[in-house]
Prior knowledge:
disordered N terminus, six-stranded parallel beta sheet, three-stranded antiparallel beta sheet, 16% strand
Amino acid sequence: MARKTPSADRTSAFVHPEDRRDHARRARVEVEFEEQTMLGALFGEFDANLVLLENRLGVYIGARGNRLVIEGAEDDVARAREVLQKLHQRLQTGQEVDSGLIESLITMTNEPVFDGIIPEGSAALPPIMIRTRKKTIAPRTAMQADYMRQLASREMIFALGPAGTGKTYLAVAQAVSQLITGSVQRLILSRPAVEAGEKLGFLPGDMKEKVDPYLRPLYDALFDCMPPEQVERRLASGEIEIAPIAFMRGRTLADAFVILDEAQNTTREQMKMFLTRFGQNSRMVICGDPKQVDIPGGVGMSGLADAVARLEGVEGIGVTRFTVADVVRHPIVGRIVEAYEGEGRAIP
């Protein structure tokens, strides 16, 4: 594979470093990768991953065999090199590489140190990962890394932020990991049965069929972390339970990893009831977006906002606040959230 010019075999919006008007210090580095079998996934189909890096960072990346040459402004070269090495590390651990991951890694290198980049060929792994039956998950943003550390160490965590930041997904992945290793005996996933701004009317079927539509996002995360047959078997045995928050009343949830999703749609009374279900050897994660409250009018303050105001700073309880910068879905999702919320607005 040889690419002597950025336009030789593909379409690119690249502008060669010599044609750029800025006068930043120029740099040229070479990066060599030993595992040539991974180069196809690293470069992307028709070098799409390299094109994305070129266009986002304003560098030129030339490839010949397993060696890349990166040219451009010093800081931009440093960022491109770091992103490529992190992508390679992800591939070494069996993870997939896509444009969303690349965008996230670019965001994480906003403050690069040119001399502090991981050396070529380094097998260093991300500081924290979650291993499940189907995949190994590493953080895509600095805030996700902090959240994953809290998931591994805190007894109770409030995860606040917009859609697409990985609040629920990472919590489910951590819960599955702990269930597999035997750290907990049960996995309990819950959320309020509240419609998102519309009335669905009467739903046919038994109780499970009535509430399943509200709990579908939890099932999706679960099936992404475990083989379907294992999910079904553990659901049947009671090791995994998915239920509306109303089903939690009167219970003590011991030896369990408990996740409450869409917590902004709980009332104060519901939240107090849920939090006091906490039992011995348990973990509890409460996820929600304080800006997306769908509680019918007249019920007062959201239980999530009330609980965070009361409990933040209490020993053993952590709070993670994600922002639009942490959205790891398609890049357009982040732009949509930003357009609705306003850039830089903090989560209350």
